[in-house]
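Notes continue from the previous slide.

Worked example: a multi-chain complex. Inputs as given:
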Amino acid sequence: MKKIIIALSLFLASPVLLSATSIKAEVNGMVCAFCAKGIEKKLNAMPEGKGSFVSIKRRVVVLELKRQHSVPLEKFTQVIEEAGYSVSKVEKVEQSIDYIKAQLKANQ
Amino acid sequence: MYRQLFIASLLFIFSFPTYSAALMGFEDSTMLMTEAGEYNQELMVNYAPSVRHAFGVEVMRMSPKGERATTMTGLNYTGLLKRWNFPSAQANIWFMGSVGEAIGQFHGFSYSPSVQFDYETTRLYFLAKVRMVRAPGMNNDVAAIQGGFSFYETDFDETQPWFVLEAKTTRNFNPRTQVTPALRLIHKSYFLELGVTNPFDKDERSLRLNLMLTY
């Protein structure tokens, strides 16, 4: 029932939640809060970013971009690697952080 | 792959005796680490200009039972020698060294190099460490291992409780062996651990508190 409500909410809110561009990566080695904090700090320092999201459980790191801004995937990967971790997959998605969070919650 | 790593970790642990936790924060971070117990007290502050190096100051007090304590104050360097990132785990080899001055039961130039190996997943934790603790006439070298598990998996914005067991031996020190079961709480930028050293020996039983803050 909970999943149905989340899925329905996502569907209804999708025009708003999908209207953002984010970079989403799967990160290896990110197992502790201190690891995640280091990555979050680096992402929050990026001027192109509107917000960031880090999930240790799902090994996911997301940077939502400001409108009319972009970051090359190579640069994003480099930021994560400079924080001490490795990226196994990175992609640009037309989704907001809120949408990705809700999606991850629904898939739990 | 995991099996090989596990075997390699075990070999490493048993060939290198051990002791502590992540030794520095992230790039451009400041970390404060303290240990307060009856036999050892320690305070360290370091700054990490990069993810691989940190520089700081340290005060360490060794208080053997029935003897006068020795306090070592010095400058400290921490280096990440090697990191392995796995899909759901991380392993590291660290070097840490400090040089300074000892006062108390022993006096003079003190130095304390150490090597640490740790392996961690979101639910399991393992650490092995050897540390030389030397000053003129003093040899309190330490070897320690720690292992632990978290009660449940949490995400970045939640507090994660862990049970950790540490076994530590200190040369020329009373008590030579210290076994400390502890409860550890980790949340974003802090780490708090409360343990009881040698809980089954009424003469040596004592509380131990560890705190770590990263900003």
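Summary box: Chain B touches chain A at residues 22, 25-29, 51-52, 80, 83-90, 120-122, 153-156, 160, 186-189, 191, 214 (CB under 8 Å). The helical segments of chain B are 2-15.
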